[in-house]
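Researcher: Please predict.
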Amino acid sequence: MLAAFCSKREKACPMDAPPKLADVILTLCREAGPDKTIDPEQVARKFVTVDGRGAATAWQTYLNPVRDNVVKLALEGKLVIYRKGVPVEDPATFKGVYRFGIPASG
C-alpha cells in the first residue's frame, strides 16, 4: 500500500520512506473519480495510517497541512476546491468548510 503513495519521480520507494501528503491527496482523489469529492478529514486520517505514527500523532494535526497542499494543488490545476458544491473562485482566499476533487476533464 505504501508504494502506491511514492512519487513517480522516484526510481525506488523504500518501505521506510514516508509518503508525501500531496501524493496521498491525489491518490485518494483519483480513487474517488471525477464525480466524487473528498473531505480533508479523510486525507488526514489516511495519512496518519500510512505515515505509521498512529496514535502518536493525532489526525487533526494534519488538517492545516492538508489544506495548504490542497490549495497548492488547486492553484496548479490538479484539483478543484468546492464550497457548498460550487467550485471556489480563488483557491488561495476561500474560507470555511470545503471538499475537493479532481477536475472533470483530468
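Model: The chain is about 35% helix and 10% strand.
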